[in-house]
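Troubleshooting: if your tokenizer reports a length mismatch, compare against these two reference records.
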Amino acid sequence: MTQRTLGTASPLTVSTLGLGCMGMSEFYGTPDHAGGIATIHRALDLGVTFLDTADMYGPFTNEKLVGEAIASAPLARDRIQLATKFGNERRADGSMVGINGRPEYVRAACDASLQRLGLDHIDLYYQHRVDPEVPIEETVGAMKELVEAGKVRHLGLSEASAATIRRAHAVHPITALQTEYSLFTRDIEDEILPTLRELGIGLVPYSPLGRGILTGAIDRSTLQDGDSRAAGRFPRFEGSALDANLELVARVRAIAERVGCTPGQLALAWVLAQGEDVTPIPGTKRVRYLEENVGAADVTLDAATLRELVEAVPRGAVAGERYGDMSTIDR
């Protein structure tokens, strides 16, 4: 696995593909602790060293899983890049408290994450969602203190607007923005991505496979009980919108067959082709899907194929909003 560098003012070198660990504990069907650890270990074997978690996943259990996997990993800690997040505050029973960016919470959340992870530092610490009630300068100021204390190496934001990114970056260099980006979700190309490039901030796309739909393996029969995609949270997976979006996936599949890869590999290769400062984190809890995703790093797309893909999946053709009643990028 090759590597890429996120950020310029506070650069972090990571594997070209990362691994999103959320689904090992929640949101995508039955949690699988043992399978998750096996998948993380296989990822490390394959050179996927950039691991992504958050305190809210589980809640709290995913950090413990990732920490356990790192502790038993066949790879030294200093060769693993661990990213976690704070800000979506949940109770132990899973209910939401709300978005919290208060400085005292930032400090407490970091200490709690370090304890669950069993680590002495976090390589990349994100604010998971921007708190509209707390100036970003105050939140990032507290995050900066964590860097100065040696608890955190690099800072990130998730689902932040261009204006918020600028204000945050003025307090302390932001290494990476994590936000949704795929053939199905390209809104950040208008203002956010140019801002990242201007400021020298890396992009970490989550859901680079459109929450799995771009793999070609999803239809109405494949979504399990407990799968958030079947629970009304994501309009793109409902009713006529799903039918329309599956037609777009069929176009991707046809191109993939000609290229000689799977639809998911093609979709990931498209994301990787958007720049050397882009490191997607496709999530899975299964070794076989991980291995398929890793194969995307070997898929090279020429300019004609890249044009064909965006013509096959025009931005305006994707049916449904990416979220239902959840607020996402701050305004």
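Reference record two:
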Amino acid sequence: MKTLNLMTLSLLTAGLTAPVFAQQTEVEKNDFYMGARLGVFSADSERVALKNGQAFFVDDGVETITSGIEAGLMLTEAWESRLYYDYMDADLVGGGGSSGGSYGVDMLYHFNNSFYAGLGVNNTEIGDITDIGGRLTLGHRSFINDNLAWRLEGGVQRGWEEGYSEMFANIGLQWFFGGRDTSPEPRTRPEPRPEPQEMAPEPKPEPEPVDSDGDGVMDPRDNCANTPMDYSVDENGCILYENETITEELLVEFDLNSSNIRSDERNDIEKMAEFMKEHPQLNITIHGHTDTTGKAEYNQWLSKRRAEAVAKVLVNKYGIADSRVDSIGHGESQPKVRENSAADRQTNRRIEATLKVVNRVPKTR
């Protein structure tokens, strides 16, 4: 075994130091080859093997000899796919020798016509103990003639199951099928042909500016597209707004000496309730009044009763929040008319309330 190891190491060393006597040959896409390989394998110090039902450590020196075959295909001028199988003859610590096998697939990338690197998946089995893992390869290849090439490789592999970390090196001969490019001088990889330059088209005349939405502002300056044509806009084509005040008034008249709300007056209260629901930010104050009939102290009390009666309808019947409704009585101090006829006195027996809201609305042309 020692003699065979020395022969293998001598062969690998000779490959490293051999002169590049071969002609320069470039591989091409779809080139296919088959080859033979011979090498050494350094097992992990923790790798074990079974022999006759007993476990032994595999010698972790450069004691394991490998020999095998391989086949590869050039997917492009730079990328290569390869399958291989190696028979392994290993030494066991205290257990003699044991055989095994290693096989896998590599994807290799060629930096130039001589050197390459690759990653692969490998299955290594020694003495019925299998470890599957990844493999990193570095290599050199030179052609001897049109179809025959020699190569030298080394690398490491790391197991996924047992976690073994191991090294390998091998030398091989490869026979390429099909014609080869045997140019005597090194050739660089062909540069891609430049795309034909098309004649630059003549510049088209600038289109006339248009006003797509008809607002009077041309499209290049129009920051607000599709504004209605009947709205006024600013210099950027955006709608101008103005304030609009909306007023809702409530006026309810009462019978003499009464705070009861007549049925014909309730529609006006309902309208005020709807207005308040549309504008929840508004609060209301209801002002109660009387005519001059009776004493001033009684009229003050009656006016307050009238205002409170309307407030209760807004809250209890129409669901306006109590916090939004206030009431106040003014007695006979604020008559609506100064005359003292029966019609005038009816006009003064009332409650009044006014709400206003200011909205921003588009300004029309």
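Descriptive notes for reference record two:
- Residues 1-22 have pLDDT under 50 and may be disordered.
- The first helix runs from residue 2 to 17.
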